Every structure is written in structure tokens, then in C-alpha cells.
Amino acid sequence: MKLNVGDAIPSLAKNPTSIGMFRFSAVMWNAHRTHVDHPYATGPEGHASTLVQDYLLASYLTEMLMKWGGPKSRLKFLGYRNRGPVHANTQVNCWGKITAIEETKDGKLVSLDVGLDTQEGLTSVPGTARILLPAA
Fold first, then answer.
1. Which residues of 81-110 are buried (b: 16+ CB within 10 A; e: fewer)?
2. What is the reported pLDDT for 1?
3. What is the pLDDT of residues 82-100, one digit of tens each?
4. Cβ of 79: how many Cβ atoms within 10 Å?
5. Global confidence as pTM
6. Is 17 helix (H, G, I), strand (E, B) or coil?
């Protein structure tokens, strides 16, 4: 695979549904009602809808990176910040752009800027990642 600094990796579109968010909350033992209770999230909490869990958003970024890197790649680092709300039942788009490539004895260590954009085009979750692509 030919890599260059500045290249974009394939994006990943996801639609976090209320059912999927409920299941994710159960697996993570996250009982906060803003993720599963629409009347509570829009009432006392004042949100437009239920909020997607930050770890679910991180899992989308991880999925994008691992699909690109392949089954033998290793995600070495993922750092991100939630800068704005992401609501249930809205499409999000994960993206990545190569910022550095380092040759190592184990393969190429690729650094990327990554992010998750809302359907309005706002980058709600910016971050950085490093993934090791093994030598062929």
C-alpha cells in the first residue's frame, strides 16, 4: 500500500440508533439516562435528543482505522475530545488524514488526524491516532 502524508483514508458513515445506544449502555454498564431516555434527555437535561456515548463514538473511529489498516494492523494510540453533542438517529461521518509515516522494524507507524463529523458538517470529535501497519 502506497502511503503519503496528506492522504485521506476511507471514511466511515454510521447512524447511532436508540436501540444500538441502549445495548451499548448495557454492555458498558452506563446507566446515565441522557443516553437512553428521550423524555429525560430533552426535558430536564435540555438536549435536542438522547446523546451518543463518547465511547461509542470512539469505537466508530477505531472501526474506521482497523478497516483501513486490516486485520494484522495494531492501533497504538487513539486520543480524542468530545467538542459537541452527537444525537441519536443522526448520521455521523468518521474521517482520517495521514500526518506522518515512520518506518520501523515491524512495519510503518502511521500518524493521523481523525475526526467524527455530524450530519451538519461540524467536527464534534477531533483527535489523533497512530496505527502500525505490519511489514508485508
1. ebeebbbbebebbbbbebbeeeeeeebbbb
2. 73
3. 998 999 999 999 999 999 9
4. 11
5. 0.92
6. coil
